[in-house]
Structure formats: structure tokens, C-alpha cells
């Protein structure tokens, strides 16, 4: 039948004897009792007696831990008894015993007055937090020790949650108990002295037995004597005597306690334990069942009961009892373990599992041959036990039986093909059979060192493995890795290639080279990785993974053509998602090579065949880009819509969104691209495409006619592009001042910039428009040839105009004829300029040809003296000679040979000249009469009329004339500003504010706009908006001359809206910036009101001192002084209030003079300075301008006089 293995029943019982506390919890309180310690070292055995006296009473109410087991724990911890008095030590022991409290103490034996007395000092420690209670020391006569336990319980009741009943009388004489406790003390001495060699024939044990038996002889009814004697027998391994004594103990307990108490149950449990140890299972079962009847909620009973059934082979019953124990005490680890043990024995069979456990124990002790025997026995009992086969293979492997271990693991894998450990060991055996155990063990030792990063120590082991077995490829590989980690690159590469070279099949070699390349790439060694991957392809050109990885490397290096070639090869030799990756790599390469049309079919294939690939989001974004690059705007838009619906949170949404916008931009779909670009920049302000998107948005706004908005976006670009485009926006808006400033700033920062020629050309044009002819000439001369080369036609137009202003007619003719040769035809303006130049040079024929080219009648233009006179007037006005021009115009107006068109032109010029001379009334008359001139001249006349109406504050006229302007002119900054001001003055404040908010941030008149806006918001009482705009104005223009009035008004608004702290902040800012400001008195008055409402005199005093430190004069501080005094007065702090009133009272010119004087008198009265108070009241009463305070002062004087007279009469 083979070996029959019995798994440790004896061990189970011994564990139980060391562990069972023979008590169960009551109300969650569990107390450990230790013997009391003698202070003078005498009569130590009395400490055990005192402990048991307390135990006898205490266990009536709470659970008490087994005292002998507690004593054993102290000895095992090598502690002396007095150390238990230290709370930290008691707390540690209590935790080990799973108790809530620990009770110990000290005593001293004294003979006083001929009587024996004990002075006892108990101490209780709470285990949870280490708190200790020292119960007051008490003296007890020897014959009245029964009172001791009641005394202790009385003091412990509150902490333990008990209400002690009257004590049980002690049925025996104390003298009869003393031998027992002397024996317990001797037992302690014996245990400490003999250590592990505890035998009953040793002298100290013989003495302990005799002392315990003496107490039994004297008082056979005392149960504790049997208890201690049984424990002595147990420690000395005198089993028969122990069981006999326990039965005596049980009988005595039954006599004392009846049959339903805990001590009886504890005794039954101990007896069951020892019968189990003796293999007397029927008796053990009987006592365990009896213990369970008496203590049905005691988990340990069911634990022992289950072990008995286990020994009897009833696994179902054993498991049920173990689970019952666990349900009663979820923290009982032993119950959980034995429940699992019973389940395993039930699953595998008791004999098989016991053999398995015995084999495992032998294996852990290093006895591998015996372990193999046990494991083989387990497999015979249970041929399907996978665990036994696994450990059988391990044991046979350890003794060198490779074939046997191989058979064991092969059998294991038949039972469980997925057993990874079995497969690993089977492969190890086969490896040892292939390379030899010595080589494999050398390799494994090297591998262990390698894993610990001890590369230099690992090298000799790998080298030994290679030496013992030259074809050991793994050894070659890890030797190479060590060299790499040690920085020996040459050795690493050589060894790695040797490893690959040992492989017999080209496909294996290729795969090894591929893995090397993959690993090198992971280490950042890109060039070496490429070399290895190329070698892999030399061994196996169809290794798709190598092509794919090489494609990735070349793509990262942006060598797109080679990347494309490898991706293309990879697509031939890979399947599923890897093929999709290869196709995606091809598409990415083609897009990067600007072959967008070739990329589109590939991207379509990817989207169709690989809709859930990891790269699908990037592929869809790439599709949007390719369509955009191919100018297929509508398809790009649809592709983006689909992408954003599928992947609303994709990291590639940014790229797809930009390229969709780009497609719409290229398709000139301005109304669609504008909101898309705005949304893009709002969502991705830090995008790599942000600069390009801002530029596109600027141009989109320009194409939509929103030049102001375009300028804002160009301003966001920054750098050279932004600077130029902002200047160009001013130029396009014909804002010559802004354009001049912006172009000059651009040329100062980028004198050789890419837009330098265009900037010079446009700056010269601006200066010419402003009448700054010489400056324009200077600017253009600096880059004349470069500008002429870059912009030949625009240069010639400018040069002709500039030469005309300087009356250099030959240059005008030369420039315009060259322009005509390039362009083929001159615009009307320049044809007329050419005619003028030819006329001035006496070339009548050339002049007539030029007039004809302009589409005009030469006779009407050249033959009329009035026309020539008008031309001279224009020239005079361009030179600023307005008075002379006005005289000539007045003379012209009286002539009868003017044509109707000339009459209107004369009226317009008369209006313009009068306007420039400030004669607005006359200018308005002339301009109104000239409004039926051609559209361009009409617009000019209307602009003058708008400004005249503005200057004269004719607000309705401002709006009327502005409404007649073309839309483009109506959007001119100066016109819009004038309309906003007119609306304000007409009472349309809301409309005015709306217009002004749009004008903020535009041009060099921003401060003026913001000031008008503040006035509007103030009129509308929109306090929040006013304060926000005021703060922004003060931040942007801290030195503005209107800053004082803004600060003053902001203080008032903040106070009116209930924002007192902001009001105080504005007032402080006012005094910091304008310490001598005209409104300081009013603001100090406002600050006084705020402080009075807040009611904080200390803060008022602090603010007052701040103003003093800033040098504010005392007379200006009167409102604040008065408010501070008032606040102290309200708090009835008269001594502190009086100085502030006195300082105000010293300034007779202050509006607070009389009221400050009155309250100063009141303070003085409270301070019992009545005479001084009367003098102050008298001065107030004499004030020439009577007010309520003068009246009140006179009333107080009368009261004080009456009181004084009454006092005198008494």
C-alpha cells in the first residue's frame, strides 16, 4: 500500500494547547491579569493570590484571558514581572493577547501593630491608546483580603462598563491557599531555569507539585488548585496526570458552578484537546460536543471539534465546523486555515493531500528524495492531482533525475496545458538536456546577477555557459547585454551577432536580428538598429516587421522616400493591423512628399478596411489635410465633420480642424472659414498652427471688408509679419497717422525685412497723402532701386505723383510713359496727370493725347482758363496757402464762364478752404451747396460737414451727415466716434455706449474713446461696467491728465454701488497720484462717510496716519479727523475721541468746526474736565454763524450752570 502519511494531528493539538485562551468575549471587553509585584521582593507568591482574587470577581462580568498563558507570554518575551508596570510594555502584551485592558500592580507586606497588612497599588492600562489609571493605594488586613477584589472593581467599573454586585464570599481560609501560590511561584522559577528541558522529576517541579497537592489536601473543593496543577503537568509533559487532574478540575467546577458556566466549558475543551493528542477520538469528540453545548458562541470549541472530525476522516463535517468557528470569530486565522485544509483534503482525498503536505514539508527542509517519494505517493492516491505532479517534477529535478522530472511535468501539462510554471520547468529540463546542467546553471547564475544590475559579475557566468556550450544562444545574448550595460559597445555587438549566427535557420536568424534592432531602437541606438534590421532583411527579405520598423525609423528621420519604400514592402508581407500600419506609413510618407493625390486612395483603403485601428484617428486627420492640399474644399469639410463626430476628444482634432479651415480658406469660402478659425483659436490658442490660423483669419476679415477686425488679428501675430500687416490695415483704412507710425516702427525693427520694400513704398504714399512731400521723397530715395525692382508699377505711380508735387514735370512724364509701356494703359487719374505735365512742359500735343486717353474732352480740359485757374488753386491748397487760395476761389466764383461742374467744384473748394481756416459757418454754407458733385467729391464734402457739425455741437446734424456717407466712410474711426458722442448728447446713451465699446483698442485715440465710454456708463448707472472700465483705463493710461477725474468718479460710483472697499482703494490711489488734487476734500468727506458706516475706529485711525505720512495738510483732513473721533465716541472711548475733535476744533475755518467743538465738550464732560468743557461750549456758542451745534452748545452750557448753582446752594 506504500507510505501512509498522517498529517500533523499531534501538531494541531500542540498548537491548540499553546493558543486556546479558554474564555470568550463578553460585551467586547477582554482583560489580561498579571501577578502583582512585591516592592520589597518578599513573598512574591502573594502577587499570584492577589491576581486570582481579582480574577474570581472580574470574570463574573467580562472575559478574562487565561492567566497561565499570559504568564507564559511574559516569560517567552524574556520580561521581568515589574516591567509589566510600564504602560507601553503592558500595551504591547495586551495587543499580542488580543485584550482590551491589562491589570497589574504592586504590593508591600507589612506587620503593623502586631497585625499583618498588605499595601496594594493596582494599575489598569487601556490597550487601544496606552492610557493608564493608577488606582489609589489601599491597606488591607490579612484576614480581610476579600475586600480587595471589591475595592478594585469599584474603581474599574466606569472604564470597563460594569456595575459590580456584592462580592462572593471566599469559602476557604487564605492560609490554606498559600502553598498553592508558593507552588505557582516555584513553577515560574522552574520554567525560567530549565528552559526547554522541563521534566517532572526535576527538583523545582517536585517542590511545585508538592505545594499544589498540599492545598488540595487542605481544601479539596478549591478548583484553582487543580487548574494550576494540571498546567504544571502539561508543561512537564506528564500527560496522563494532566488529564486525570483536568477531570478532577472539571468535577470541582461542577460542584462550584453547576453545569452551565464558562469555567466548565473551558475544562471540557482542555480535556477534548488532550484526548485528541492521545488519539482517543471518541472521548475527545464527547468532551468537545459538551463544551459546545455549554458555550455555543465560543469559536475555539468549534475549531477543536472540527479537528477531531478531520482526524476521523469526515471532511464535510470538519469543514462545516471550521466555517462555524470562522462565522463566530471572523478574525480567527486558524479557522480559516483549517477550513481550507479540510476543503483541500475533501477535494484531493485525505491520503493524497496528507502525502502532498508531507512531501511539501520535506521539500522545504531540503530532503528532496523523501519529498519525491511523498509526491509520488500522492499521485498514486490521486492520479489527477496537478500540484503533486508539479512538485514531484521539482523534487526529481533537484536530485538530478531529468527524465523523471520531464515525465512528471509532461503529465502535469496533459492535465493542465496552461500551467505556466510547469511549462517553464519543462523547458528548463529540455534546455539542460540540450546544453548541459552546468552550462544552464552558469547561465542562470549570470541571469540572476544581470537582473540585479551586477553586470561585471554576471559576465564570467555567461562566458562559462558559452564555453561549455558554444551553441547556447541565450547565453551569447545575455553576455552581449552585459557588455552593452558596461559600455563595451564593440564586445556587445560582436557577441549579439554571434548569438544570431548560432541559429541554423535563416528565418530564425532574421528574427534575432530584428529583435536586436527593435531592442537597440528602444535604447535610442537608431543607427545600430537600422544596421541590424538591414541584416535581418538580408537573411529574410520577406520579414514584414523589419520593413515596418525601418519605415518608422526613416519616417522619424524624415527620410520619406526610403520610409515609403519600406512601408510598401511591409504592406506586402504583413496582415491585419500591421498591414494597416504599413498602409498608413505609406500615406504619411506620400503626404510628407507633397504627393497628396497619391495618398488619398491609400487613406480611403485604411478608413474602409481598418476602422478600429489604433492609428485610425490620425489617418482621418491626414485625409482632411490631403483633401485640403488638393483644394477639394467640400470633401475636406465633409471629412472633418465625420471626424469630429466620431472623435470629439481626439488629440488629432486640432490638426483636422486646421486643415478643414485651410481648405475653406483656399476655396475663398470666407463666411464659413471665419467662424471655424475663431473656434479653432479659442480651443487651441497654443497650437503649432496658431500663427498661420491668425494670419488666415486676418486676411479672411479683410476679404469680408472687416478691416478693423483684421487689424486686431494681425496684431496677434507678433513679429515681422504681424507688424507689417497691422501697418497695412491702417493703410487700407486710410488712417494715415496710424499707418505712418506703424510703417515707421516696422522699418525701425526690420530695416531689411521681407516686407521692407513694400513698407517703404506705402510709407512714402502715406506721407504724400499727408502733404509731407519732402519726407516722402527722403523715404523712397533710401530704397529707390530695390522698391522699383520689387514693385515697378506701384513705384512709377508714386514717383509720378511725388514728382508732380515737386513740379518736376520731366520726371512725371518719364515715369508715366514707362508705366504705360509696362501696363499698356494709364488709369484716368494718371492720364490727367500726364496731360498736366505735358501742358506745363509746353507739349500741347502730348497733353491732348493724354486727356483723350483719360476719356475727357481736350478742349474742355485744356482750353478753358477756368480749369487752369482751378488747378493753380489746388496747388496752392496743397502747399497750405489757404488764404491766397480763398481769394482766388472767391474771384473765380464771380466769373460767368464757369461750367456747372466747375461751379460745384469751386463751392467745394471754398467750403474746404473756409473749414481749414476755421470759418465753419461759411464752410457749411458752401459745402451744403456743393453736395450734387460727383460721388467721390460728395463724400469729401460730407466728411467736412460731419466735423463742422461736431465742432459746433450740432448733434442731430452730425448723425444726419454721417448717415449720408458711403458704408466704408461711415465705418471710419473718426466718424464713428463723432456719431457716438452725438448720440450721447442727444440722450441716446445706450446706443452711444454700444458704439464706444466697439471702438475700444483702436488707434491712438483709445484713451478719448474710453473717457467717453465712462461718461456713458456713469449716465446709465451701470456701476459694475463703469468700475471695470475705469480700472482698465487707469491701468492703461496711468499718467493721463483726466486720470484725476476718473479716480474721483470711480470712488463715488464704488460707494454708490455698495463696494466700500473698492471706494477706499480708489481714494487711496487718488491721494497717491494727486496729493494736491482739487477733489481731495470731497474724497476725504466720502471716506469719512464710509468709515462711519463701517464703525471701525482703529482702521480709521490707521488710514488717517497714512494720509499724514503722505503729507496731507491737517485742514484737509478735518472730515477724516471728525469721523475718527465720532467712531471712538460711539464706542464710548472718550479719551481717544477727544484729540481728534480737538484737532478739528483748532481749525475755525472748517465746516466741522462747531460740531467737532460740541462733541469735544461732551468728551470732556465724560472725562470729568467740566471747566474745559464749558470753555469749549462757550467758544462754539460765540460762533457767528448759528447752526444746530451752536444751539446744542448753549443748551449744554445752561445745564452745566444750573448744575453748578445747585451744587453751590447745597
Please write out the topology:
Elements: H1 9-19, E1 30-33, E2 37-38, H2 45-58, E3 63-64, H3 67-76, H4 87-96, E4 101-112, E5 115-126, E6 132-134, E7 138-141, H5 146-160, H6 174-194, H7 203-218, H8 223-235, H9 239-257, H10 262-277, H11 281-294, H12 299-311, H13 315-328, H14 333-348, H15 350-364, H16 368-381, H17 386-398, H18 402-415, H19 420-435, H20 437-451, H21 455-468, H22 473-485, H23 489-501, H24 506-522, H25 526-539, H26 544-556, H27 560-573, H28 576-592, H29 596-609, H30 616-629, H31 633-646, H32 653-666, H33 670-683, H34 690-703, H35 707-717, H36 719-732, H37 736-749, H38 756-769, H39 773-782, H40 784-790, H41 792-805, H42 809-823, H43 828-840, H44 844-853, H45 858-862, H46 865-878, H47 882-893, H48 900-916, H49 920-929, H50 935-951, H51 955-963, H52 967-970, H53 973-985, H54 989-999, H55 1006-1020, H56 1023-1036, H57 1043-1056, H58 1060-1073, H59 1080-1094, H60 1097-1109, H61 1118-1130, H62 1134-1145, H63 1153-1166, H64 1170-1181, H65 1188-1209
Parallel strand pairs: 1-3, 1-4, 2-4
Antiparallel strand pairs: 4-5, 5-6, 5-7
Helix pairs in contact: 1-10, 2-5, 2-6, 6-7, 6-8, 7-8, 8-9, 9-10, 10-11, 10-12, 11-12, 12-13, 12-14, 13-14, 14-15, 15-16, 15-17, 16-17, 17-18, 17-19, 18-19, 19-20, 20-21, 20-22, 21-22, 22-23, 23-24, 24-25, 25-26, 26-27, 26-28, 27-28, 28-29, 28-30, 29-30, 30-31, 30-32, 31-32, 32-33, 33-34, ...
TPR repeats: 265-298, 299-332, 386-419, 439-472, 510-543
Pfam families: TPR_16, TPR_2, TPR_8, YfiO
Domain Outer membrane lipoprotein BamD-like: 629-700
Amino acid at each position: 500500500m506504500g507510505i501512509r502519511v498522517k498529517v500533523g494531528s499531534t501538531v494541531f493539538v500542540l498548537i491548540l494547547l499553546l493558543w486556546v485562551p479558554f474564555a470568550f468575549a463578553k460585551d467586547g471587553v477582554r482583560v489580561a491579569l498579571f501577578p502583582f509585584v512585591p516592592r520589597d521582593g518578599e513573598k512574591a507568591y502573594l502577587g499570584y493570590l492577589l491576581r486570582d482574587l481579582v480574577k474570581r470577581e472580574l470574570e463574573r462580568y467580562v472575559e478574562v484571558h487565561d492567566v497561565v498563558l499570559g504568564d507564559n507570554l511574559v516569560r517567552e518575551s524574556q520580561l521581568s514581572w515589574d516591567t509589566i508596570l510600564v504602560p507601553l510594555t503592558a500595551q504591547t502584551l495586551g495587543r499580542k493577547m488580543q485584550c482590551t485592558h491589562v491589570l497589574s500592580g504592586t504590593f508591600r507586606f507589612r506587620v503593623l501593630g502586631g497585625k499583618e497588612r498588605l499595601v496594594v497599588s493596582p494599575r489598569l492600562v487601556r490597550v487601544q491608546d496606552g492610557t493608564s489609571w493608577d488606582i489609589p493605594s489601599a491597606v488591607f488586613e490579612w484576614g480581610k483580603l476579600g475586600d480587595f477584589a471589591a475595592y478594585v472593581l469599584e474603581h474599574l467599573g466606569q472604564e470597563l462598563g460594569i456595575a459590580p454586585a456584592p462580592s462572593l464570599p471566599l469559602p476557604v481560609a487564605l492560609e490554606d491557599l498559600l502553598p498553592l501560590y508558593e507552588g505557582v511561584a516555584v513553577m515560574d522559577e522552574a520554567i525560567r531555569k530549565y528552559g526547554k528541558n522541563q521534566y517532572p522529576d526535576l527538583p523545582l517541579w517536585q517542590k511545585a507539585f508538592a505545594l499544589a497537592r498540599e492545598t488540595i489536601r487542605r481544601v479539596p473543593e478549591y478548583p484553582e488548585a487543580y487548574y494550576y496543577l494540571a498546567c504544571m503537568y502539561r508543561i512537564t509533559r506528564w500527560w496522563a496526570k494532566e488529564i486525570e487532574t483536568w477531570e478532577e478540575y472539571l468535577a470541582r467546577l461542577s460542584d462550584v458552578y453547576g453545569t452551565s458556566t464558562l469555567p466548565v466549558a473551558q475544562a471540557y475543551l482542555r480535556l477534548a484537546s488532550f484526548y485528541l493528542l492521545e488519539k482517543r477520538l471518541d472521548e475527545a469528540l464527547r468532551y468537545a460536543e459538551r463544551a459546545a453545548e455549554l458555550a455555543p458562541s465560543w469559536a475555539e470549541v468549534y475549531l477543536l471539534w472540527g479537528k477531531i472530525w478531520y482526524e476521523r476522516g469526515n471532511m464535510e463535517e470538519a469543514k462545516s465546523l471550521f466555517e462555524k468557528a470562522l462565522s463566530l470569530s471572523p478574525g480567527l486565522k486558524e479557522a480559516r486555515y483549517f477550513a481550507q485544509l479540510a476543503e483541500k483534503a475533501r477535494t484531493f482525498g485525505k491520503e493524497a493531500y496528507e502525502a502532498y503536505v508531507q512531501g511539501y514539508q520535506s521539500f522545504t527542509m531540503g530532503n528532496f528524495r523523501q519529498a519525491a517519494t511523498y509526491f509520488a505517493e500522492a499521485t498514486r492516491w490521486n492520479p489527477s492531482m496537478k500540484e503533486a505532479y508539479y512538485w514531484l517534477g521539482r523534487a526529481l529535478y533537484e536530485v538530478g533525475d531529468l527524465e523523471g522530472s520531464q515525465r512528471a511535468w509532461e503529465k502535469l501539462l496533459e492535465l493542465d496545458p496552461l500551467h505556466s510554471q510547469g511549462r517553464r520547468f519543462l523547458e528548463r529540463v529540455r534546455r539542460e538536456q540540450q546544453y548541459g546542467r552546468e552550462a544552464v546553471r552558469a547561465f542562470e547564475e549570470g541571469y540572476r546577477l544581470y537582473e540585479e544590475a551586477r553586470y561585471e559579475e554576471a559576465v564570467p557566468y555567461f562566458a562559462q555557459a558559452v564555453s561549455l556550450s558554444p551553441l547556447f544562444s541565450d547565453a551569447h545574448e545575455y553576455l552581449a547585454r552585459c557588455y552593452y550595460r558596461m559600455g563595451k559597445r564593440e564586445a556587445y555587438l560582436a557577441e549579439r551577432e554571434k548569438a544570431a549566427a548560432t541559429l541554423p535557420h535563416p528565418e530564425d536568424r532574421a528574427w534575432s536580428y530584428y529583435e536586436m534592432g527593435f531592442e537597440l531602437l528602444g535604447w535610442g541606438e537608431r543607427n545600430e538598429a537600422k544596421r541590424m534590421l538591414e541584416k535581418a532583411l538580408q537573411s529574410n527579405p520577406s520579414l514584414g516587421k523589419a520593413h515596418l520598423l525601418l519605415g518608422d525609423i526613416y519616417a522619424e528621420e524624415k527620410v520619406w522616400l526610403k520610409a515609403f519604400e519600406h512601408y510598401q514592402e511591409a504592406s506586402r508581407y504583413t496582415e491585419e493591423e500591421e498591414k494597416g500600419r504599413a498602409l498608413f506609413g505609406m500615406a504619411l510618407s506620400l503626404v510628407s512628399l507633397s504627393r497628396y493625390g497619391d495618398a488619398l486612395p491609400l487613406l480611403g483603403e485604411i478608413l474602409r478596411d481598418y476602422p478600429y485601428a489604433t492609428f485610425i484617428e490620425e489617418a482621418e486627420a491626414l485625409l482632411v489635410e490631403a483633401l485640403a492640399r488638393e483644394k477639394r474644399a467640400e470633401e475636406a469639410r465633409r471629412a472633418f465633420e465625420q471626424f469630429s463626430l466620431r472623435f470629439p476628444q481626439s488629440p488629432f482634432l486640432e490638426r483636422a480642424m486646421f486643415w478643414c479651415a485651410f481648405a475653406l480658406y483656399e476655396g475663398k469660402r470666407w463666411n464659413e472659414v471665419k467662424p471655424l478659425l475663431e473656434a479653432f483659436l479659442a480651443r487651441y490658442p497654443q497650437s503649432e498652427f496658431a500663427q498661420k490660423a491668425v494670419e488666415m483669419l486676418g486676411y479672411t476679415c479683410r476679404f469680408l471688408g472687416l478691416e478693423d477686425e483684421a487689424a486686431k488679428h494681425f496684431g496677434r501675430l507678433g513679429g515681422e509679419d504681424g507688424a507689417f500687416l497691422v501697418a497695412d490695415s491702417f493703410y487700407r483704412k486710410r488712417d494715415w497717422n496710424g499707418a505712418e507710425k506703424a510703417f515707421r516702427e516696422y522699418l525701425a525693427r526690420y530695416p531689411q525685412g521681407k516686407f521692407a520694400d513694400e513698407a517703404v513704398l506705402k510709407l512714402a504714399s502715406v506721407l504724400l497723402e499727408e502733404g509731407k512731400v519732402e519726407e516722402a521723397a527722403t523715404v523712397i530715395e533710401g530704397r529707390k532701386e530695390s522698391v522699383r525692382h520689387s514693385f515697378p508699377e506701384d513705384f512709377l505711380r508714386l514717383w509720378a505723383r511725388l514728382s508732380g508735387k515737386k513740379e518736376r514735370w520731366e520726371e512725371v512724364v518719364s515715369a508715366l510713359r514707362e508705366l504705360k509701356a509696362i501696363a499698356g494703359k494709364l488709369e484716368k487719374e494718371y492720364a490727367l496727370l500726364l496731360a498736366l505735365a505735358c501742358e506745363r512742359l509746353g507739349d500741347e500735343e502730348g497733353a491732348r493725347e493724354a486727356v483723350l486717353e483719360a476719356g475727357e474732352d481736350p478742349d474742355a480740359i485744356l482750353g478753358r482758363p477756368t480749369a487752369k485757374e482751378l488747378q493753380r488753386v489746388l496747388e496752392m491748397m496743397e502747399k497750405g496757402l489757404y488764404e491766397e487760395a480763398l481769394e482766388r476761389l472767391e474771384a473765380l466764383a464771380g466769373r460767368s464762364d464757369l461750367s456747372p461742374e466747375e461751379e460745384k467744384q469751386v463751392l467745394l473748394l471754398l467750403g474746404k478752404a473756409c473749414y481749414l481756416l476755421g470759418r465753419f459757418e461759411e464752410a457749411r454754407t458752401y459745402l451744403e451747396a456743393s453736395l450734387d458733385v460727383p460721388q467721390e467729391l460728395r463724400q469729401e464734402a460730407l466728411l467736412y460737414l460731419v466735423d463742422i457739425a461736431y465742432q459746433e455741437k450740432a448733434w442731430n446734424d452730425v448723425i444726419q451727415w454721417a448717415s449720408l456717407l458711403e458704408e466704408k466712410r461711415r465705418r471710419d474711426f473718426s466718424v464713428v466716434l463723432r456719431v457716438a458722442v452725438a448720440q450721447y448728447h442727444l440722450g441716446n446713451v445706450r446706443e452711444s455706449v454700444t458704439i464706444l465699446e466697439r471702438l475700444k483698442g483702436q488707434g491712438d485715440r483709445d484713451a478719448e474713446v474710453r473717457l467717453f465710454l465712462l461718461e456713458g456708463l456713469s449716465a446709465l448707472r451701470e456701476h459694475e461696467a463703469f468700475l471695470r472700465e475705469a480700472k482698465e483705463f487707469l491701468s492703461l493710461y496711468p499718467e493721463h491728465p483726466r486720470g484725476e477725474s476718473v479716480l474721483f468718479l470711480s470712488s463715488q460710483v464704488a460707494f454708490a454701488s455698495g463696494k466700500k472697499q473698492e471706494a477706499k482703494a480708489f481714494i487711496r490711489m487718488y491721494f497717491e497720484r494727486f496729493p494736491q488734487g482739487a477733489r481731495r476734500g470731497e474724497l476725504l468727506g466720502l471716506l469719512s462717510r464710509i468709515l462711519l458706516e463701517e464703525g471701525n475706529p482703529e482702521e480709521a485711525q490707521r488710514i488717517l496716519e497714512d494720509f499724514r505720512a503722505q503729507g496731507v495738510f491737517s485742514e484737509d483732513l478735518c472730515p477724516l479727523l471728525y469721523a475718527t473721533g465720532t467712531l471712538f465716541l460711539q464706542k464710548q472711548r472718550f479719551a481717544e475721541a477727544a484729540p481728534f475733535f480737538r484737532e478739528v476744533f483748532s481749525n475755525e475755518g472748517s465746516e466741522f468746526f462747531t460740531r467737532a467743538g460740541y462733541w469735544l465738550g461732551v468728551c470732556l464732560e465724560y472725562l470729568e474736565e467740566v471747566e474745559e468743557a464749558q470753555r469749549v461750549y462757550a467758544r462754539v456758542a460765540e460762533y457767528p454763524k448759528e447752526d444746530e451745534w451752536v444751539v446744542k452748545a448753549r443748551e449744554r452750557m445752561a445745564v452745566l450752570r444750573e448744575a453748578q448753582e445747585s451744587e453751590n446752594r447745597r
